Amino acid sequence: MITAQVEIGCKHGLHTRPATLLATIAQKFCSDIEVEYRGKIVQGKSVLGLLQLEAKEGSTLSIRINGKDEEKAMEALIRLALNRFEAM
Predict the structure, then answer these.
(1) Global pTM?
(2) Which of 6, 8, 10, 15 does the annotation list as catalytic?
(3) Residue 15 annotated in active site
(4) Going from the N-terminus, what domains does the chain have, and what CATH number goes with each?
(5) SS (H, E, C) 29-56
């Protein structure tokens, strides 16, 4: 299992578009992906779960990934966060 912290850099927080991008990228990997914010843990492959976090701009998310392709998955999700949750 690997973990990382990423910051929400998009102006409106983790709203529909960035949540959909995160989930879409997460779904490309077979590893289990969890996202935590303020003690609430959701599946990273679930748009609805990510939206329930209600993470605002500047918030820090904790991402935990466990599985065969965990390193590649984490690299992709960190890249997305560094790109301010914009399509790559």
Answers:
(1) 0.94
(2) 15
(3) yes
(4) 2-82 (3.30.1340.10)
(5) CCCEEEEEECCEEEECCCHHHHHHCCCC
